[in-house]
Amino acid sequence: MSNQTEQYDVIIVGGGMVGASFACALADSQLKIALVENVQAPTWTQADHDLRVSAITQASECFLRNIGVWEGIVARRISPFREMHVWDGSGSGVIHFDSAHIGEATLGHIIENSVIQLAALERLAEMKNVHYIAPVEAAAMNVEDDRVVLSLSDGRILEAKLIVGADGSRSWVRQQANIDVKGWSYHQKAVVTTVKTAIYHNETAWQRFLPDGPLAFLPLTDGYSSIVWSATTQRADALLALNDVDFMAELKSAFDGKLGDIESVSARGAFPLKLQHATRYVGERTVLIGDAAHTVHPLAGQGVNLGFMDAAALAEVLIDATEKYKTSHVDFAAHRVLRRYERWRKTDTLATLAAMDLFKRLFGHRSPAVCWARNTGLTLTHQAEPIKNIIMRHTMGLSGDLPALAKPSYVNKVAV
Ligand SMILES: Cc1cc2nc3c(=O)[nH]c(=O)nc-3n(C[C@H](O)[C@H](O)[C@H](O)COP(=O)(O)OP(=O)(O)OC[C@H]3O[C@@H](n4cnc5c(N)ncnc54)[C@H](O)[C@@H]3O)c2cc1C
Q1: CB contact at 8 A, 161 and 331
Q2: Fewer CB within 10 A of the end CB, N or C, for the chain?
Q3: pTM, rounded to two decimals
Q4: Quick one: which of 180, 394, 186, 165 has its CA closest to 290?
Q5: Choice from 136, 291, 345 to test ligand 1 binding pocket (greatest atom count within 8 A of CB)
Q6: What are the boundaries of each domain within the chain?
Q7: Under CATH, which number does the domain 5-183+274-408 receive?
């Protein structure tokens, strides 16, 4: 323990998937970075799949390639999905997406969260300008005119021009900066587990919309699937309380037996679901990225993808500002510089938040009229190839104002 103040340009609080990848995105900058994380790095083994997985879009894949993290992911484990099959549990509506229809090899990949985080930390260890400090808690934060001072739970004091809150949906940094959030609880939990099914998933992401919430089977390696089953809190608690045999039977029935018997099931976990949006992404010498800025329903697997785009956009804005600093001497952490990031990312995020909330409500509706309209809409969209292709490109993260780091042309692609 030392009371000597350590000097940095940027302090990132939170070394989860978004915070760690944001640090990687600053690899080629002249910025000296501290990444503070309060828990040990996750463990990962070949033997078991992590309970937490994410559907990663092509735009996020480009970002992870461009920042040197993708190789570490591929070296561990990765599972492509080429098709997506979505259907309404209360009717006949169905929609099917196939990457081949738009000339793409995949719609995305299912990747374990711990794999992404470990690959990012591995990349960070090669970087000379990043100091990873863990496990230690960010304990007190004081913003002054020209700097921010952060005290850590082990007594260390860090000083920087900018602090980045990448510390998740209950962000401590956000609270210290007095940034409010708007949103609501869905009064739902997502039950997660890993199963082996009798019928191969065929590299397809399956999702059935039930009145209680969506049930997704996401394809993993060796014929396993990751389950994300959103249901009312009461129903989710009941599912968690079932023994394995009863849970597998319940799961098969809720999924309409689409992939046959459930042959094995791992431990189960659950996460309360909410929609949350920070009223501002920036404060004085403070910026929020990832779940610290926004939390969405997992039904379309967009949460961490939004976070990666935040990381890519903020890195671009900061690197641009440090380049300009050489001639104009504009502080790279000045409020107007940070506002550029906020304006850029808020538009994209608000559109995604609204779309996810609309889907959640639409599919939760039990009225026969809404049910009919929903099923008819699904079927008509399924038949309208051009509309489907637009939706596919959006789901793959390929629409909108993408940061340079999320574009394929940034560096040569490394084949998977
Ligand atoms: C069931 C479920 C399924 C999902 N599926 C998908 C999907 O398929 N695709 C997708 O894009 N998204 C998905 N999401 C969303 C995704 O998981 C989140 O968006 C993502 O984990 C957010 O990452 P983050 O790094 O911003 O925050 P977090 O993962 O919450 O990381 C924050 C980090 O900050 C650290 N921290 C917190 N406070 C402090 C402190 N005071 N000091 C130091 N460190 C601190 C924490 O230890 C943690 O490591 C899903 C979410 C759920 C619940």
Answers
A1: yes
A2: N
A3: 0.93
A4: 165
A5: 291
A6: 5-183+274-408
A7: 3.50.50.60
